[in-house]
Amino acid sequence: MASGIPSVLFVCVHNAGRSQMAAAFLRDIAGDRIEVRSAGSLPAEHINPVAVEAMSELGIDITAESPKVLTTDAVQASDVVITMGCGDACPFFPGKRYEDWALDDPAGQGIDAVRPIRDDIRRRIEALAADLLA
Question: In this structure, are residues 81 and 75 in contact, taking their beta carbons and an 8 Å threshold?
């Protein structure tokens, strides 16, 4: 926590669904009390439109977000690195807190399949925020 506030990096393969939803939930819950980043090991061109729809159902707009490539600098600058299906693509640095969240990939899924993924992410984010802000 170099800046005095914790920083979290969410990483998935395409940075178009899971990691974007997680980042949006954490920004919504924590505001400026936690620095939030997201990235992908092989970023897509656009955010998953079904993820956008699922989040908009809860009043969270992620339409302005765009997939970003995972960089070593982003990992180094983060206190907590949460991976979601990107496996060994994420660089490892001693002293960082790593968590791997086993979540279904919303890519190619309809809204009825994405809602439970979104809700699982929200529960995990609420617990993470409570832990980091304690």
Answer: yes
Closest CA to 44 of 27, 60, 67, 22: 67
Query: DSSP code of 94?
Result: T
Helix (H/G/I), strand (E/B), else coil: 97? strand
pLDDT at site 59: 98
Q: Which residues are annotated as catalytic?
A: 12, 86, 90
Amino acid at 74: A
Q: Which pLDDT belongs to residue 94?
A: 79
Query: Shortest CA distance to 34 belongs to which of 67, 75, 1, 69?
Result: 1
Q: What pLDDT does residue 90 have?
A: 67
Q: Which amino acid is at 39?
A: A
Low-confidence ranges of the chain (pLDDT < 70): 1-3, 86-91
